[in-house]
Amino acid sequence: MKSQAERNRLGQFATPTSLARDILQFGIALLGEENRIRFLDPAIGTGSFFSALLHTVPESRIDAAKGFELDAHYGEPSGDFWRGTNLNLEIADFTQIKPPREEAHRFNLLICNPPYVRHHHIVNAEKSRLHDATKAACGINISGLAGLYCYFLSLSHIWMQQGGIAGWLMPSEFMDVNYGKAVKRYLLNKVTLLRIHRFDPQEVQFGDALVSSAVVWFRNDPPSASHNVDFTFGGSLLRPKISRTVPFSVLHEAAKWTSLSISDDQEAAVCHRLADLFKIKRGVATGGNKFFIVTKEQIETGGLPREAFRPILPSPRHVAVDEIEADKDGAPVLDRQLFLLDCRVSEEEVIARYPTLWSYLEKCKHIVSERYLCRSRKVWYFQEERPPAPILCTYIGRSDAKNGRPFRFILNHSKATAANVYLLLYPKSVLARAIDRDQSILRRVWEALNNLCPKAILKEGRVYGGGLHKLEPNELGNVDATPIIKAVPELKDLAKSIQPSLFDPEAAQRNVS
Ligand SMILES: C[S@@+](CC[C@H](N)C(=O)[O-])C[C@H]1O[C@@H](n2cnc3c(N)ncnc32)[C@H](O)[C@@H]1O
Fold first, then answer.
1. Where are the beta strands (DSSP E) in 248-308?
2. Pocket of ligand 1 contains residue 8 by CB under 6 Å
3. What is the C-alpha separation between 48 and 15, in angstroms, rounded?
4. From residue 380, how far is each of 73, 372, 492 by CA, in Å?
């Protein structure tokens, strides 16, 4: 009865029965076949895990079973359904409930598929409440960019009995992204991490959620420095396709954990990376494309001042070519000609100088000016500074793309900027100087970028369900630039003769350390 948008807001994705049963079977094995059970599911929904628990052990072994559900739409029928069992289901916000004070009232089997609510949907006051509560619960500082599931995991700490087992079905992205660092610190420092099983993104677990998922298992005991963690991948939790043991020390060092389950490659340090050649930035996040990006006709019919707009590329799906030519004014030669409202003068000045633009701004102000991006700007319609980039990268793509290339590099001769569906590659000084001397270098570098082995790029990024890959600017920057330097002999000479410090100070720092 719920729309996708409503379900997204509360992170409502039911765990498939077979997966719930695998999880319970595994959790019970970790707990020990003899132990009595105090079960907790902090985000119980209709009770898939409780159902699987009853399927796995006799009810007489369960001393207590507790579940929380925020949404009465699920909680009430669920309560009716499980009446007659010993499940105590509370319709409440788990994050607001006071945890038990006594050890005997805590739980030794905590299984959860927490709500996957992205940080954009958590208002600031709520974020700071959750931040303080998790800090109090386990001493971890969660970043404001973290999704709700990170708070759930850390808040649950004080609900667990000493030695209790927890199994969390959650998005695997925490293993690689910045905001996941706090969760990893928790798993390494506060508890004993036992196993992480990552499902193969090609075999999507939730038909309706574009995230790849993992099951994270730990015991509520302090960690020992010498222990190893099982990393498994693909297949099912009980019958993974790949399985390897990763020493605790490697986990401490590794910035990204997802590749640990699939590769032994402890890779030698890469001397030159794309970040040594390019400053890489995400394109403009306008805060409201419908409003800030307009067509030529809209400018003309609205009598809007042309100087308040500059060309912007359409999204990659409307750019079939990999090389964008420019007309005599520098506008891109494409079927779709778009312009970004990029006016850097105050409201007072707009009123005085551009009355038509002012009435356009006024019409849309109430729609966009209060959006997060717009309200965090000095003036709500000021755009980020993003000069035209000579090379752009389409950084969201599928590994099974028809042309075998999940990401495209586009050579841009125009003066168009680009929105945040692109990454913008600006040559750093050494490369820029080389290009100034010989324009053909830019073209050859671009060709070499498009010839990079897709795997070398993919392994730096992150992967979502259904084989959808994505790269952040720093991840693209991490890609090994050796093939580019090899393909462009002039760069090889530069790389040989020039110390990394001339590429950029950060690289020098990295190489020294
Ligand atoms: C990913 S679903 C999992 C449901 C069920 N445990 C399962 O595995 O099928 C997460 C559930 O958490 C509920 N939820 C969201 N925020 C919550 C909160 N603050 N406290 C308790 N439950 C919450 C959602 O309504 C949803 O039913």
1. 278-282, 293-295
2. no
3. 6
4. 38, 10, 45
Per residue in 230-242, pLDDT (tens digit) is: 998 888 899 888 8
Q: Determine the Cα–Cα distance for residues 312 and 389; give it in Å rounded to an integer.
A: 11
Helix (H) or strand (E) holding 89: strand 87-91
Nearest atom (ligand 1) to Cα of 116: 1
Q: Which helix (H) or strand (E) holds 14?
A: none
Greatest CA span in the chain, whole angstroms? 81
Burial 338-365 (b: 16+ CB within 10 A, else e): bbbbbbebeeeebeeebeebbebbeebe
Ligand 1 proximity of 156 Cβ (cutoff 6 Å): no
Asked whether 74 lines ligand 1 (CB < 6 A), one says yes
Does the C-beta of 233 come closer than 6 Å to ligand 1?
Answer: no
Instruction: Give the pLDDT of residue 494.
Output: 62
d(CA 51, CA 81): 11
41 CA from centroid of ligand 1 (Å): 9
State pTM to two decimals: 0.58
Helix (H) or strand (E) holding 284: none
Which residue(s) pair with 166 in the sheet? 110, 218
What is residue 301's three-state secondary structure?
Answer: helix
| Measured distance CA(59)–CA(61) in Å, rounded | 5
169: DSSP letter: E
Record the tokens describing residue 461, joined without a space. Answer: 């990024």
Is 284 a residue whose pLDDT tops 70?
yes
CA dist list (Å): 331 to 113, 284, 307, 417, 442? 49, 18, 13, 10, 20
> Which residue, 113, 111, 110, 135, is CA-closest to 45?
113
Burial class (CB in 10 A: 0-12, 13-18, 19+), 246: middle
Tokens 């929105």 sit on residue:
419
Q: How far is CA 449 from CA 174, 201, 392, 480, in A?
A: 28, 26, 11, 11
Tens digits of per-residue pLDDT, 159-201?
999 999 999 999 999 998 889 999 999 999 999 999 999 988 7
- Cβ–ligand 1 distance for 11 under 6 Å, the answer yes
Residue among 46, 89, 94 to mutate when testing ligand 1 (max atoms within 8 A of CB): 94
Asked whether 14 lines ligand 1 (CB < 6 A), one says: yes
Tell me the HSE value of 122 on the side-chain side, using a 13 A CA sphere. Answer: 23
- State the distance from the centre of ligand 1 to the C-alpha of 235, rounded, in angstroms: 25
What residue type is 401 in one-letter code?
A: A
CA–CA separation, 436 and 445 (whole Å) = 14
Distance of CA 255 from the midpoint of ligand 1 (Å): 30
Could you tell me the two tokens for 506? 């950060």
